[in-house]
Amino acid sequence: MTGIVSPARRNLTLGLLIVVAILSYVDRQVFTLFQDDIKAELGLSDGQLGLLTGMSFALFYTIASFPIARYADRGDRRLTIAVCVIVWSAATALCGMAQNFWQMVLARIGLAAGEAGAGPAGNSLLTEIFPLERRTTVISVMLAANAVGISGGLALGGWLSQYFGWRAVFLILGLPGILIGLAVWAFCAEPRRGVGAVTIPPQQIPMREVLRTMAGNPSLRWVALLLTMVPLTGFAFILWGASFFQRVHGMGKAETGFWLGGAMAAGLVIGNLIAGWVSDRYGKANPRFNGWFAGLGLIASFPFGVGFALSANPYVALACFVVVKFMMTLHLGPIISLCYAQVPVAMRAMMSATIGMVIGLSGMGIGGTVAGYVSQAFAADYGDRSLQPALALISLCLLVGGFAAIMAGRTAKPLAEDA
């Protein structure tokens, strides 16, 4: 299939989807930098903030992701991505206009619904137009782009906070995404698009068969445990990191955006790129290597997660944050590649949606929400420092995820169709 698309068009498509991936996390992450301002202006509790950053987003992300991914497995993926970008960009702008908790919930739901489709459709498209030997690298580049978006959202939001209030920042960051969506529609490759029509792949796998395949594969069941446990910690750190440094260490928004954004970029971007290179070099034909590589990285990240949460020095906490994010990030590219190797091509967008569902519900949904309520429970004893014991407690999930990664590699059975 890669021969249908020229190398130049492949790289242009990758470049545009990198921009889309960055934008999705900028729009998502900037909320966390301003959530204490939003809390004060709208009269919210930490629990309600957890629902806004977590469950309200994750639940509707999940609801929207499967029908969109189902279409992406058989239809025009560049149209899917373009529409999703336009929808979530408009919803980001609407966040800046919310006047109460429920209006903000509705805007966050729109953001979730738009972002739900772009990732699965983009992954399906890229794994089709790039050759097998570059697949994990491409996946890891996209994950690194997500990391750039996470850190860039903090840094850009922190810079803008010096000149604008939170409402204006949402408008400034949301509206340009509409133009990016149109650029995706105009310039991305889509091998299925013939003259005047979309070519539907001949192999159509029913939804029940997709779910049966995932549930019946021991390796994918271990992956499900891994992708439940690790995002609990990872997203709790990401979604509450800005509030953590502002409350516990007394940093301002601009300072938090600069230091925390830089720490995220250093850990996540480098980790994703190294994971892609190592997995393509050593794990392409050896799924056990991918599992051990991911698992050992997660286990090694645990003490640094605790150090981040409990350190009294903000710069020691930042150093631990860089290490924990780097070590955690080593798992995702190899594990996603391991998953794709065990399902047919026509099922991969659904697999991507399933991965996104598990990560979204467990990380943004459960992790972000639980961190908020656990912090609220510790507030009576710890006051403004209640996020410290809350985040330290959630770090225990990294150990479970590391064991699950090792078991996923040991039980993996790749298909032969890519050879």
UniProtKB/TrEMBL annotation:
Keywords: Membrane, Transmembrane, Transmembrane helix, Transport. It holds the Pfam family MFS_1. Residues 13-413 form the Major facilitator superfamily (MFS) profile domain. GO terms for cellular component: membrane. The keyword Transmembrane applies. GO terms for molecular function: transmembrane transporter activity. It is found in: Membrane. The chain crosses the membrane at residues 52-72, 79-99, 138-160, 166-188, 222-245, 257-278, 290-310, 316-341, 353-374, 386-406. It is a multi-pass membrane protein. InterPro entries: MFS, MFS_dom, MFS_spinster-like, MFS_trans_sf. Its main location: membrane. PROSITE patterns: MFS. PANTHER family: PROTEIN SPINSTER, SPINSTER. This is MFS transporter. It comes from Novosphingobium arvoryzae.
